[in-house]
Amino acid sequence: MAFINPPVLELDFTGAANVADFSIIHGTVRKTILSIIEGMAVLPNRYLVNIAANNDYFITHLYPLGIVRITVDKAWGFAEEAKSSAKKFFSKLTRASPDCYARVAVGAEESWKTSTKNNTTTPTWGETHDFVVTDFDQAITVNVEDADVGEDEEVGLAVIPVKDILLAGGRQELDMVRKGEQTEGKVSLACEFFMFEADGGSFSASDHHGDGRFCGLATILVAGAFGIKGQREELKPSVVVKWGSKHHFQTSIQTDAPGTDISNPTFNQNFRIPVTTDMVGSGAESFRIALMNGEKETGGVDVPFADVLQAPNMILQSKFDVGNGATVRASICLQGVRAATMQETKALPHRQRQ
Question: What is the percent of the chain where pLDDT is above 70?
């Protein structure tokens, strides 16, 4: 279960908690609650409810659809209305204009921030970043803000679903709103969609060189562990997955409880790593799958990148031997990308809601 996009959250505190209705406190509480919801149940995150005991996670897991490459071109049409009264007065004295940057997100994907263009009401960026797409109804949100020494001020917000901008030819001039009110401001975006495929050719393609550009995706599924030895009350198993020094993930830690087979725990969790050109090639590091008991590693296995690359459809699935008679059932999938044709973009696949 999941929200396609972050939900709209309105809070109204009563009684002794009414102090939290002050804007600063209210905003902080709201952001904290939203971050928790997004981390659990906004795509690409899902809240898994396993209603079938014989469910095979490798079969039912839904992989992302592709990558959208977003270029923030420019913004214009805003000026003094984006400023507080104090800053308006200061601007009149100094003739200063906003120092603008754009923050972009797709659904609950990690947001990305452009550079800041100083002292202008017509910032031009022409900067590009890639986002993984899990559903074509995920919204692209662009927040244009004025960088300040204290708290940055909102200039305007623009929102458009991924499918709408792709079906419009990949380029749009979006109206911006500020505090729920329409403004005269606009921001220009360009988008290109890349489809996943079982081909590593994109890993070295020049089109994907550069900061913020992905040449593929690595997806690691951890279904469960088997044959863990030890006293039930002392076992707290989890699985850690590493790829190089930058990517470190850990499943939930299981504890002994009624109905739980602590010696053969089920995790059914996935970890996703956008691949950049500097991560692959002859120097590509191995994937590390380690079985943990609490904070202690009890065994592990290194899976060479080349083994995954050469596996059928670039998917390596196995009960990996991690030592001491224990195994971890995991899947490592590599996907390259290719630019979608105009015909493929117009026939965006529909994903059944589950």
Answer: 80
Q: Cα separation of 83 and 100, whole Å? A: 12
Q: What residues pair up with 113 in beta bridges, in sequence order?
A: 103
Q: Where is pLDDT greater, at 48 or 120?
A: 120
With 0-12 / 13-18 / 19 or more C-beta atoms within 10 angstroms meaning exposed / middle / buried, residue 319 is middle
Question: What residues make up the domain containing 310?
Answer: 199-336
Non-local CB neighbours of 63 within 8 Å, separated by 6+ positions: 196, 219, 333, 335
- With beta carbons less than 8 A apart as the criterion, state whether 132 and 272 touch: yes
Residues 235 and 207 grouped into a single domain? yes
With bands split at pLDDT 50, 70 and 90, how would you rate the model's confidence at 151? confident
Q: Tell me, yes or no, whether 186 and 208 share the same domain.
A: no
**For residue 40, what pLDDT band results from cuts at 50, 70 and 90?**
low
Q: Does residue 239 sit in helix, strand or coil? A: strand
Residues 180 and 214 in one domain: no
Task: Calculate the average pLDDT of the chain.
Answer: 85
* Spatial distance between the Cα atoms of 243 and 284, rounded to a whole number of angstroms: 9
Question: Per the structure, how many domains does the chain have?
Answer: 2
Residue from 84, 315, 313 nearest 198 by CA = 313
Tell me the whole-structure pTM to 2 decimals.
0.85
Q: Are residues 171 and 248 in the same domain?
A: no
Whether the per-residue pLDDT at 226 is higher than 90: the answer is yes
Q: Are 158 and 141 a contacting pair, CB within 8 Å?
A: yes
Q: How far apart are the first and last CA of the chain?
A: 7
The candidate with the shortest Cα–Cα distance to 330, out of 257, 249, 275, is 249
Whether residues 300 and 265 share a domain: the answer is: yes
Task: Pull the structure tokens for residue 102.
Answer: 């754009």
